[in-house]
Amino acid sequence: MAEAEESPGDPGTASPRPLMRDLKAVGKKFMHVLYPRKSNTLLRDWDLWGPLILCVTLALMLQRDSADSEKDGGPQFAEVFVIVWFGAVTITLNSKLLGGNISFFQSLCVLGYCILPLTVAMLICRLVLLAGPGPINFMVRLFVVIVMFAWSIVASTAFLADSQPPNRRALAVYPVFLFYFVISWMILTFTPQ
Amino acid sequence: MAAVDDLQFEEFGDAATSVAANPDATTVSIEDPGETPKHQTGPLRGSGREEDDELLGNDDSDKTELLAGQKKSSPFWTFEYYQTFFDVDTYQVFDRIKGSLLPIPGKNFVRLYIRSNPDLYGPFWICATLVFAIAISGNLSNFLIHLGEKTYHYVPEFRKVSIAATIIYAYAWLVPLALWGFLMWRNSKVMNIVSYSFLEIVCVYGYSLFIYIPTAILWIIPQKAVRWILVMIALGISGSVLAMTFWPAVREDNRRVALATIMTIVLLHMLLSVGCLAYFFDAPEMDHLPTTTAIPNQTVAAAKSS
């Protein structure tokens, strides 16, 4: 059965979309993030499934374990969610206001997908924390988070920097740096109860 | 008629005296066209009041004024309208930040750096960075201070980010609003030469907060004396930028009102920094270090003896 042509983001079509095709598209974008090359795939066929999966995974791992007796603890699930999406929207608006020629959803897509290295860092941190707290434990986590943070920045800059005129590139890239720095900080300061 | 005069002054570039006359006449004509005839007849420089405009000495200020008039012509519900507030290049943002860090007496921040092109990029992202700088530094500082205490369990204190955001953004928008309203009200009573638009005031306040970013990071050092010296330095720099910016706007006024306005501006600025220091950073106890080694020994000794 012929699959209906659909534009990215088209919510539903007449014929049933095979799940495998969507998963393959998401997986392909993950690979593009892990090995950032100057390619237009992320920009051309944007989708928000990948960012959603990553955001939910990150928020689930970051939320406090206990049913919360402690009041000034780490972020709740909703807080992480809001920070990621609100931050991505703000950066996108900033980029467009500065005169960038990237569309709104393309930018959200890129920023969301480039959280992948930090999600991997979160996974590694949780595994390392199982070994018990200690300074060596902390140094390992610090190293992992720093490497993944740099990876996220490089990956997103590779996609986003070209969309800005050269005299404003730094202005558009700095908020991305701040965004991933805040997420890295949340990952690094995660302490299990 | 004023346009013809401006064009005439544009052509004068060679004679030394007309170059000297140029900055005075051209820049005053921007602020208040009514003043132009008075300055044409009066002496060239050092006439009566010290004008900080003479230090500008640029002859394309007319051009920027015309362009500024043509720029914001889109209606406010279109995207292009808001794009005019982000019409800055990287080097311009750096220049403005540099201007906020080095207050030179006599140089007006608004006149020198903003020049009818106020941007919202600087204020917004400086405030965002400051929010996270304060929250993260406060968290880190508390962690280092309480390190070694048996009863201390580290928490990331994430709530404080939202509190910091509320405080900083409220300060960066509401105080300029109040100040602008006040200046407009005084302007209706006393003819002031200099008047600032609301966005220019927001811009000055936003950039003047930049000094607090390195200050907040340095506040991690758990020494009371160091922290208070940092408060004084930061307040000195950003307070003087604000004072020098707003002094020309109030000096025409009643002496007491002018001084009270400047004092209020500086006082609010000080309240912000001291308030942030007090709320986000725990006080480092002076006798903290000895007790961390003493108390565990005492508790161990007590446990052994009992």
TrEMBL record, chain A:
Species of the source: Aotus nancymaae (Ma's night monkey)
Keyword Glycoprotein: no
Ranges that cross the membrane: 46-64, 76-98, 110-132, 138-160, 172-191
PANTHER family per the UniProt record, alphabetical: GOLGI MEMBRANE PROTEIN YIP1, PROTEIN YIPF6
Pfam family name, one: Yip1
Record-given protein name: Protein YIPF
Domain of life: Eukaryota
Signal peptide: none
Domain named Yip1: residues: 33-186
Any GO BP: endoplasmic reticulum to Golgi vesicle-mediated transport
Main location, first listed in the record: Golgi
Lineage of producing organism: Eukaryota, Metazoa, Chordata, Craniata, Vertebrata
Membrane disposition: Multi-pass membrane protein
Cellular localization per UniProt: Golgi apparatus membrane; Membrane
UniProt keyword annotation of DNA-binding present: no
Family recorded in the similarity comment: Belongs to the YIP1 family.
GO cellular component: Golgi membrane; trans-Golgi network
InterPro entries to which the protein is assigned, alphabetical: Yip1/4-like, Yip1_dom
Keywords: Membrane, Transmembrane, Transmembrane helix
From TrEMBL, chain B:
Keywords: Membrane, Transmembrane, Transmembrane helix
Pfam families referenced in this protein's UniProt entry, alphabetically: Yip1 (PF04893)
GO annotation, cellular component aspect: Golgi medial cisterna; Golgi membrane; Golgi trans cisterna; late endosome membrane; nucleoplasm; plasma membrane; trans-Golgi network; transport vesicle
Transmembrane segments: 120-141, 161-185, 197-222, 228-250, 257-281
Skewed-composition ranges (Acidic residues): 50-59
GO molecular function annotation: small GTPase binding
Membrane topology, record value: Multi-pass membrane protein
Start and end residues of each stretch annotated as Disordered: 15-64
Keyword Zinc-finger: no
One GO term (biological process): vesicle-mediated transport
UniProt superkingdom: Eukaryota
Limits of the Yip1 domain: 101-273
Keyword Transmembrane among record annotations: yes
Subcellular location: Golgi apparatus membrane; Golgi apparatus, cis-Golgi network membrane; Golgi apparatus, trans-Golgi network membrane; Late endosome membrane
Recorded family membership: Belongs to the YIP1 family.
The protein, known as: Protein YIPF
